[in-house]
Amino acid sequence: MIVEYVTAVPHPRSEAPGSARAGRMSLAVALLCGAVGAAVALLATRQRWSEGTATVAGGPFPLTAKGSDVTGVPASLAIVGLAALVAVFAVRRAGRFMVAGLLALSGAGTVAAALLGASDSTALDEQAARASGDTSATVQALTHTAWPYVAAVGGALLLLAGLLALRYGRMWPGMSGRYERNGTPRPRRKAEAAGDPDRPEELWKALDRGEDPT
């Protein structure tokens, strides 16, 4: 006769493989997007965003404006976003959520500032006024390059990194190696197990340390 026993004690659940895989994948993607996005935004702000001409001494005078001349917001926010990306791993729980939000906002601000600067002519108008000596002079034959949109792409990558940090950041490890992924301290391994002093290997170890085994 076979008797089956039923117990009400639940079996311990292990971490779902899918969740662990999603955490590792999101971490890799966020790091890549954040680093590349910040680099792209910074690079784009150093390129020529617009160009035109001003009338000086009866002839055209070429004018150019870099992204940093048009607006300094994308470069500043890219640096803030890069710092936030690093800081995500230095904090936990609510702090990590706040830093991830700052990373996302930095990306969104970079996108908005870059798109607004794509059609801005203020920097070239100021150059035209200085070149011609006429405060009312404005730039002529104004054209824009694609670099503002490149900066916006960099901001979008920062925004994506921030959204990933908001969604999966709780699964990511921190900088401290003393803790496991769930935040609990790791059980410390005993430094040295107490050995039998009469065992031959213990005698040899004592001799190696310069101790008298007797």
Automatic annotation (TrEMBL):
Coiled coil: none
Species of origin: Streptomyces osmaniensis
UniProt keyword Cell inner membrane present: no
Keyword Phosphoprotein recorded: no
InterPro entries: Trp_biosyn_TM_oprn/chp, Trp_synth-assoc_CHP
Annotated segments matching region Disordered: 177-214
Spans traversing the lipid bilayer: 27-45, 70-90, 97-118, 146-166
Protein name: TIGR02234 family membrane protein
Biased composition (Basic and acidic residues): 190-214
Keyword line: Membrane, Transmembrane, Transmembrane helix
